[in-house]
Specification:
Helices cover 55% and strands 9% of the residues. It is an alpha/beta fold. The chain has a 7-stranded mixed beta sheet with strand order 3-2-1-4-6-5-7, with helices on both faces.
Length: 393
């Protein structure tokens, strides 16, 4: 995933001139010649009407229709960002914003400019991040039915399931934030997933996030949104930032299912009116191996996020405080030893039969599975420990 320079260094550049400006309205712009002038004028009018000392910053994302010149003529300060992308444009805009507060707006006339003072009011009262909620106030034709009833609820619901943000409309483009929280957010993504990254980072930093309903109007001009590509980028971002849901939960489910199948097969229990034999045992044991590997990958992903990316996860923090490398080595070693003992038993039985036909197929499958899982746990413990060499605590 492409990334831009971290935000904090950009803030230092603008710090000296920030005192005179309270609010920066930052608008990303890609070929919005039909709308950008009105967006700038209405933003400035909203600030003036509310008596707010502010500015409008347009992040021109390599437009080729003269949008930047039109924005400048309308009274905006324009910053050029040749690397295209929703996140790229906003990072460039944030880097030059001078206000104590930042209000974000799209350049398509969909959002209510008259609500800018309300966002500022919430920020003045102590909010760190303020979100708009469009879902109950969508004007006819403003949002495709797939976005309204499937995409946005699904992605917002997934985000809340993974990160418990409590935000109803996680992809609303009108939002406000305190400029001094940008170093803590450390925003880096360059595409549409930037909207999700901001909320996830704010949630993990335990910031004060607020939300209130706003109107959503039909856009002017041509939409730049790619329905399936951008939806997938959001979902992908959510998954890779939640190793628990991507790896650990599915891994535990697969492991439990494998254990259940193995127990039923090995104990010769009758299920659905029949006994389950060797092939069922092989399937169950295979699920156990796969489940263990997925869990190990999840723990390694947690370790990488914690030690290299500064992520925090209460569950993983509790686990790493309680368990050490030696616990993993002992568990893996014990399981490996159990597998080797089972293998030795099979060999002894085979020896007593004069190395004839081997009839301990199920025990052999179980022994091999124990050996494999033991080795997985043993060496995965070492890998997690290696990742932890970077730890600062």
């Amino acid at each position: 995933m492409a990334s831009l320079p971290s935000t904090p260094s950009a803030l230092d550049v603008a710090a000296a001139s920030a005192a005179a400006v309270e609010v920066s309205v930052v608008i990303p712009c890609l070929n919005e010649a039909a709308n950008i002038e009105e967006c700038v004028r209405r933003s400035l009018a909203a600030l003036t009407a509310a008596g707010i000392n502010g500015e409008v910053v347009v992040a021109d994302n390599d437009s080729d229709d003269g949008s930047g010149e039109l924005a400048t003529a309308a009274g905006a300060r324009v910053v050029q960002e040749p690397r295209r992308g929703y996140g790229s444009a906003y990072l460039a805009g944030f880097a030059t914003a001078r206000g104590q507060f930042v209000v974000m707006l799209d350049a398509d006339l969909t959002y209510p400019f008259e609500e800018i003072p309300r966002f500022v009011s919430e920020l003045r009262e102590g909010a760190d991040l303020v979100m708009g909620d469009r879902m109950d106030n969508i004007q006819p034709g403003a949002m495709h039915w797939m976005h309204r009833y499937i995409g946005n609820p699904l992605l917002s619901g997934t985000l809340n399931l993974f990160f418990r943000t409590g935000i109803r409309d996680a992809h609303c483009g009108m939002r406000g934030l305190r400029r001094d929280i940008l170093p803590r957010l450390d925003l880096r993504t360059t595409g549409m997933e930037f909207a999700s990254e901001m909320i996830i980072r704010a949630s993990k930093e335990k910031l004060d996030i607020r939300e209130f309903p706003i109107q959503y109007a039909p856009r002017g001009g041509e939409s730049k949104l790619s329905r399936f590509r951008d939806g997938w980028r959001h979902l992908r971002f959510l998954l890779v930032h939640s190793p628990t849901h991507l790896f650990v939960v599915p891994g535990v489910a697969v492991l439990v299912l494998g254990l259940l199948i193995s127990v039923i097969s090995l104990s010769q229990l009758s299920v659905f009116g029949r006994a389950w034999n060797l092939h069922t045992t092989v399937g169950g044991e295979l699920l156990c191996i796969v489940g263990t590997q997925i869990i190990a990958l999840g723990l390694c992903a947690h370790a990488y996020g914690t030690y290299f990316m500064g992520e925090t996860d209460p569950w993983f923090d509790r686990m790493r405080a309680r368990f050490r490398l030696e616990h993993g080595l002992m568990l893996g070693g014990a399981i490996f030893t159990a597998g080797m003992i089972a293998g030795l038993i099979i060999f002894v039985v085979w020896f007593k039969r004069g190395f004839g036909q081997l009839s301990e197929e199920r025990l052999a499958v179980t022994a091999a599975t124990l050996v494999i899982i033991g080795l997985q746990i043993f060496f995965s413990s070492f890998l997690i420990s290696i990742l932890g060499l970077r730890r600062r605590d």
